[in-house]
Design goal:
Elements lengths: L1 H12 L4 H5 L10 E5 L4 H9 L6 H11 L2 E5 L1 H15 L12
Parallel strand pairs: 1-2
Length: 102
């Protein structure tokens, strides 16, 4: 349910209005946790595009970073790359102990 809650919160931020503009972003002295943001699934993105809205992920990321309450981690693409590396290693296509680019 948390991803849905974040999506709803992000979508609500896209609605302009005086009440929203008057609010200030809560801040923390230091991070209290880690937050992984995930892009909405294709079905959700299509629904947003019908209303000429984009993914709220960038806006949510910016607000979370400015609040200083959480460390934001990228899981989507990074996890895909790690899975690809594991597949290559399992198939024997990687040379053990090699360091490309280092």
């Amino acid at each position: 349910m948390l991803p849905l809650a974040l999506f709803v919160a992000g979508a609500a931020l896209c609605i302009p209005g005086p009440a929203l503009q008057a609010q200030e972003l809560e801040t923390c002295e230091g991070p209290v946790g880690t937050l992984a943001l995930v892009e909405p699934q294709d079905e959700t993105l299509r629904a947003l595009y019908r209303y000429e809205l984009e993914s709220p992920t960038s806006l949510i990321r910016m607000m979370v970073q400015e609040s200083n309450c959480f460390i934001v981690v990228e899981r989507g693409r990074a996890l895909e790359r790690m899975a690809q590396e594991r597949e290559l290693a399992a198939s024997g296509q990687l040379a053990g102990g090699s360091n490309v680019g280092g």
